[in-house]
Specification:
Length: 237
């Protein structure tokens, strides 16, 4: 457990159909309170403009497009993400070692300016049954462990996994290897389509380094109250 270290601010998943609504929420937040995640829906609807603006305003933006393609294409896409000034970018570990290595090598020339590069292991919406249906007959935790090893060997900065696997990831890598965990659900909130979930406090206790939270904040009656409650549960004031 990383109790000796203050938790990093949560990452708010801006999964909105209307870019103006995403911006309206961002206007009520501050970079000291949280980081921002832009995923497929907002990016396809709004494009890179808002990202450039938020980065210029001092926000840490995680561009979550989960690249998964041939190495050349993914490397070029990661470089394009870096050119937007984002703080973190992700690929799918299932794209393989050559793809992840190409992504890392595309970012390396940027030195300290480069974004963190992490790999999604097994989506938090999967359980053992749905994994089996796509041909992965191992338990989610075993599949995550295999993909963590591949990601670590490829030299990436961390993984996206469920908080249920965070402790095992830390044990197999090192404490600075990021364990970015979606599927965070405060006690009593709806799981929605997530299957491998944990509460914020339990996720931190299990060794998650970066908590990703979407609907429990963005669909709350008052997103600011929900964010402050989340921060309180994380031990942040
Ligand atoms: O890479 C991600 O961010 C991600 C990986 C994963 O395995 N599961 C997962 O839910 N996510 C993202 O994390 C966010 C979770 O949102 P909520 O389920 O609304 O809290 C969504 O934007 C997902 O796209």
């Amino acid at each position: 457990m990383n109790s000796h270290r203050a938790a990093e601010p949560p990452i708010v998943a801006l999964d909105f159909a209307d870019p103006a609504r995403a911006d309206a929420l961002v206007r009520r937040l501050s970079p000291e309170l949280c980081r921002l995640k832009v995923g497929k829906e907002l990016f396809v609807r709004g494009g890179p403009e808002a990202i450039r603006r938020w980065v210029a305003e001092g926000w840490d933006v995680f561009l979550d497009l989960k690249f998964h393609d041939i190495p050349h294409t993914v490397a070029a896409a990661c470089r394009a993400a870096a050119d937007l000034g984002v703080w973190m970018v992700n690929v799918h570990a299932l794209g393989g070692a050559a793809m992840m290595t190409a992504a890392r090598e595309a970012l390396e020339p940027l030195g300290r300016q480069r974004p963190w590069l992490i790999a999604v292991t097994i989506l938090t919406s999967h359980d053992a049954q749905s994994l089996e249906a796509v041909g992965l007959s191992e338990r989610p935790a075993a599949a995550v462990a295999r993909l963590v090893a591949l990601t670590h060997t490829a030299g990436l900065d961390g993984v996206v996994c469920s908080a249920q696997e965070a402790a095992a990831v830390e044990a197999k890598t090192h404490s600075a290897f990021r364990r970015v965990t979606p599927g965070i659900r405060p006690a009593g909130s709806a799981a929605n389509d997530q299957r491998r979930i944990m509460t914020p406090a339990a996720a931190l206790a299990a060794g998650a380094t970066d908590l990703v939270v979407g609907r429990p904040i963005t669909r709350a009656d008052d997103p600011i109250v929900a964010l402050m409650d989340l921060r309180a549960e994380m031990g942040l004031t």
